[in-house]
Structure prediction request, 485 residues.
Amino acid sequence: MSGRLMPCSPVEIGSLFLFEKLSPEQLGQLCSAGRVEKFEPGPVYTEGEPATCFYVMIEGTVVLSRRVAGDDVEVTRTSQSGVYAGSMQAYLGDRVPQVYNNSMRVTEPTRFFVLPGEKFSDFMQEWFPMAVHLLEGLFFGSKSTQRAIGQRERLLALGSLSAGLTHELNNPAAAAVRATATLRERVGKMRHKLAVIAQGNYAPEVMANLIDIQDRTAERVAKAPTLSPLEASDREDAVTDWLDDHDIQNGWRLAPTFVQAGLDVDWLDQVAATVDEELLPNAIGWLNYTVETELLMDEINDSTNRISHLVDAAKQYSQLDRAPFQNADVHELLDSTLLMLSGKIGQQIKVVKDYDRTLPKIPAYPAELNQVWTNLIDNAVAAINGAGGEGTLTVRTALEHERLLVEFRDTGPGVPAEIRGRIFDPFFTTKPVGEGTGLGLDISWRIVVNKHHGTLQVESEPGDTRFQVLLPLTAEENDTIEELA
Prediction:
């Protein structure tokens, strides 16, 4: 948008704080190279357009805004004479994209001193060569530092996740090893018990009945019901009494295993009715080994399934075998991240999943969203641990204003009001030196806002802090979705 050209006064330009140290000759050169324009209420330039001009406001009111999820969010509104915007990095030339990084509009007739970007660059190089070198070093050095620390942030997260995953894998792996060793011992005892029974010269039909009981017992173990502690205790007492009444030694030791396997007094009565009284003790002992081996095999199966589930979660978290941009189920991403972080979350923090499972898949970069979830969960855990280590982390999904909401709510001490506006700034951290880079929330903000056209915001009071991620349900026109292989 162009304004109405007006006379350029070196004296007036020199009154602006940006130019107050310039000589009369330099102010004259500014007026010759630039121009004064008066803009009526409305837009001056739009975010993303080529940055061709540097604007310094002489008088009026200016509003700067950023585009977030298709909406223009106001970031600055001021009537302060001398404020500037536009092609402020023109002195860097084509080493960085020269586009407007915000939109500017005026709310009343407003006068600007307007300097073409290439002239601004020329004056900077000619008048302030040392300053330009310092600014270039600051700009590229900051970018390099941010990149390096961003990589370290990801490595720290990876190290934390690896430690947690190793811990989580170790438990089922150790359980499977223990169960396998015990199973080997029980199978050996079962062979010995079978040999004892075989030496009894029983009729073939008796042995067939015993084998049939063994098979049906194994089937019963597979369908064992889940009992409450009180129900289990009552059934153990009843089974113990039955075994004692039938002169089965150490019945109190056998009863818990039988009850765990779903066996009860009625089943034992069926066994007693099937075999001779003389064979009953050996038959009960043999069935005990059968039950134990079935339970041990179930334990091994559960452990190996747990390991497989953890490996699948790690693959889901890393998205190693997935397209970088795809239609993703946020619940799968959240579950894999929570599982990967379960070791770090610990037992003292209660995790509540309040999911709306009717939500659709959304176009996203899943691996990067997992990084956002990791950062937000890590912060919530740190907040709860800082308040004593006990609390609740609630992860909620919902549909809100035609966008998908993912909310992380913790019962920590909250984010103080005086720093709430700075927590998304690069390198800002409240953690002790060496424990945080200050880039976790900055990276999260960039992933959510810049890559997904969403919003990331925080609401906080003591005992109730909520980080809310809002993501669009559909891709923007310039986005493409790669199909899964």
Remarks:
- The chain has 13 helices and 16 strands.
